[in-house]
Specification:
Layout: H1 6-23, H2 32-49, H3 57-60, H4 63-113, H5 123-150, H6 153-179, H7 188-211, H8 215-219, H9 224-227, H10 231-251, H11 257-273, H12 286-294
Helix pairs in contact: 1-2, 1-4, 2-4, 4-5, 4-6, 5-6, 7-10, 10-11
Length: about 300
Amino acid sequence: MSRVWPGWTCALAVLALLWPIRACADSCTDDREAVARQSTVVRGCRTRSAPAAPIPENVAASPVVAALTAALVSAATQVSVRQGTMGTFEQRARELGERLIAVETRLQRARARLSEPALAAGRADWQRRLDPLLVRAQRARSGYDSAQRSRSATGLAAVEAELAAAETGLTGLFAQMDTAPVGGGAALADARSAVLAQARSRLQPLAAAYLGGNFASAAAWADEAVLMVTPRALAEALLMRAAARYELYVLGGERDLAALEQVRADLRIARSQAPDLQPNERAYSPRFRALFVSTR
């Protein structure tokens, strides 16, 4: 009997497994283990019953067989839909996570811009414009973490709305900063260009020493105070000094752990000044770039 009716035996086993899983589906919609077991049983049943002898027509047409067949089809459909939904959630969460990091990075840049001397006169007003965007980013971060824990699609939708508003606000804020009038009627962008030109002149000796292989001179650079008003230039300078110090550490046999810690300290400060800072592949060695990535 078991040789002739393996499809019946498998169908009854599937129904026994399906019933408790289907009964708790509404209250346990995120039970991945149940979904996985259900999917495995359905696939296994199809594999085992494929070579079996055909069921006689009078049996195949019975209400019991029809009910079991409908249950199998429904279960397979539910598995497919729920697995597809989980994949969509993960993809959307990943995309929103990347957007959230980008917004947080732009906010850090905006806060750094407020420290520029050219914005000193209207700093309080700029801060009032920035504060609501900071609040939105905080709500987005909190909502994102909560939605991830509860796997809530509704929560992700709320996060997306917050991010869209923050992105629009930041774009407008940066545009206003670049065209804000400063002393003498000049535009802020022009004033910043003058400051950056001065910073470049300060960086030239350091860059020449490092790129020329004079690592001792580059490692002794100590002009941070002059570049404090230009965070990006300061970050680049600290990156070059760190690279010079690292080369000296390697040439010394990699035994001076205090020197290595100085390198790491420079990298941490550089990253704090420019969160998106990345060492250029043509200017810095692979080992130094790896150290940069691992230093937090």
